[in-house]
Amino acid sequence: MKNFLIFIFSICSIFCQKHDVYQGLSLPRLQKLQSVLSDYIKEKQICGMSVMIARHGKIVHFEQQGVAEVDGHHMQDNTIFRIYSMSKLITSVAVMILHEEAKFQLYDPVSKFIPEFKKLKVFVAKTKDGIQVEDMKREPTIRDLLTHTSGLTYGYFATSPVDKMYVDANILDRNTSLKGFITKLTKFPLKHQPGSKWEYSISTDVLGYLVEVISGQSFDEFLRNRIFTPLEMKDTDFFVPQEKLGRFTALYTMKDKKPQIFDTRQGFFSKQPKFLSGGGGLVSTANDYMNFCTMFLQKGRFKNKQILGRKTVEFMMTNQLSSAQLPFGTNRDMWGYGFGIGGAVVMDSTKANTIISNGSFQWAGAASTFYTIDPKEDLVALLFTQMLPFSNELGEKFRTLVYQTIAE
């Protein structure tokens, strides 16, 4: 009788343990993740969020909390978010699709397709009469654009007169066409010699125009035909049409420690822009972006459609920077990380001070949206919020909370 009871207890323990784990993730620990993130809403650091985690091709966790707008509209499973710089990976995929078709080589100079890049100058120093410039030592290549080593900048970080030129010219004006953007951009010198260093920049916006030139299609049409439709990304676009505005979330910023609306549903993204920003112009949903990230884990496939070849996916998720260009970073050096095509790669988790797997691929958007694609763990994790300024702390906490759920 005693042995029988021990046997029954053992079976029950195994059964209960298995039901506490799904696809290798601990369900109680997933609740811990959600509880910690809930505190951000309770403390009014963010207004709402959508969290989506998949492992081994299955959605393990998908939960929404908070509101999409302070008028009481709650977050839904199909809420539409501004993904800003998470647009960059989508644009990079578009470019690599054309590369697979042998339309260009990565070492091709940008000027082969955009002649305005042929005779750019490079900033050297500020003088009492203006600025000193010099000739390029070599032209920027398409690979330079893909890896943010082209010598271009964003203008936001204000570390040189070139940044001020960008800001004064409103370089990313939504009312300017991609062609007009190129015309305006190439009037200014490069901030750095091409290939000399990594600097976060409008390079990916140049890539959007490159897609138009090489494909002969408008940028949005190419994305729709080659990426959004085959990946069933039905809510991803450069604007939110009228019939979907009820699902769009407002964008918030902090003022006097309280969230204030920075951009409403009827704001910038409610109308089709002339400027199709490949670097930060897309809106999407957690479901759509999960389909996109899943394609990477499935070696370029989604369902029965091959979007990219396996070797291209592996190449994109491999560090492209030289030792002289590392460490890289925007507001801090990212030790232990490299940069692939469209996102950061964990090269040494010890140096990166993270429990995330080596080989993981990740990036984020300005409104505190985050993705992680981990081939080793066969995992995708997404956190979508809509809060400015960008919170790197939130992203790091989220990724740690995701990885502490891995039980098997």
TrEMBL record:
Gene3D superfamilies: DD-peptidase/beta-lactamase superfamily. It comes from Uabimicrobium amorphum. The keyword Hydrolase applies. Signal peptide: none annotated. SUPFAM superfamilies: beta-lactamase/transpeptidase-like. Keywords: Hydrolase. This is Serine hydrolase. InterPro entries: Beta-lactam-related (IPR001466), Beta-lactam/transpept-like (IPR012338), Diverse_Enzym_Activities (IPR050789). GO terms for molecular function: hydrolase activity. The keyword Hydrolase applies. It holds the Pfam family Beta-lactamase. Residues 34-389 form the Beta-lactamase-related domain.
